[in-house]
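Structure first, sequence second, as always.
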């Protein structure tokens, strides 16, 4: 018997994710089978599959990405089963769980210790924590000890691309870095691929507007 959540999950894929040009079969299968409702705060259970950003913390910027954005992120990274992934901004652990299903292992960090602890509890309950390491720290304070990675996913927006210069150096050759760059009302989703030792290829994927990453490095504006 199909449950309400299963029906909502099917509708999410067919009415939100697939129409947003997410056509990768692996991504659709994983999102179609991942119980998103278990990663949503109790107060928002009824909105688990809605096309909105769901509040997840005490700050206005702490919100869950809309499903269609998650789909584009996962598709852009083109993960293989042997890939190790670095996620910046664990949030509720939903994207983390999807990344772990697509790759070999995920090293995820969140600057908010409470969110990191809650995500870890959810992932333990889902039985995926063996492939996932979650730490509470500022990803921009130091390079990850687990680098280099096949892929890096930044789940909150950055005001400029400058912080990506440091992150991209933590990629393996051929590795991919997905990030949102810019400030409201319009931001750009970009994919940076490491080509050889010191070369990088940048692609602009789509325009959007997502919550900023807490404590993201900023470039001071010039004052006359």
């Amino acid at each position: 018997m199909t449950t309400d959540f299963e029906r909502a999950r099917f509708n999410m894929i067919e009415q939100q994710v697939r129409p947003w040009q997410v056509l990768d079969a692996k991504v659709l299968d994983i999102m179609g089978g991942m119980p998103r409702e278990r990663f949503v705060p109790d107060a928002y259970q009824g909105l688990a599959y809605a096309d909105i950003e769901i509040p997840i913390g005490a700050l206005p910027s702490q919100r869950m990405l809309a499903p269609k954005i998650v789909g584009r992120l996962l598709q852009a990274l083109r993960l293989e089963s042997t890939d190790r992934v670095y996620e910046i901004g664990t949030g509720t652990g939903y994207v983390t769980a999807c990344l772990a299903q697509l790759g070999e292992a995920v090293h995820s960090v969140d600057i908010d210790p409470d969110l990191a602890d809650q995500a870890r509890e959810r992932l333990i309950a889902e039985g995926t924590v063996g492939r996932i390491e979650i730490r509470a720290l500022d990803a921009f304070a130091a390079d990850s000890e687990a680098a280099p990675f096949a892929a890096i996913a930044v789940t909150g927006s950055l005001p400029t691309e400058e912080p990506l210069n440091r992150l991209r150096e933590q990629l393996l050759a051929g590795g991919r870095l997905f990030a949102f760059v810019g400030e409201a009302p319009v931001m750009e989703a970009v994919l940076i691929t490491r080509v050889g030792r010191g070369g990088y290829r940048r692609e602009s994927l789509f325009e959007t507007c997502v919550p900023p990453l807490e404590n993201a490095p900023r470039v001071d504006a010039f004052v006359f």
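Margin note: The chain has one domain: 4-208.
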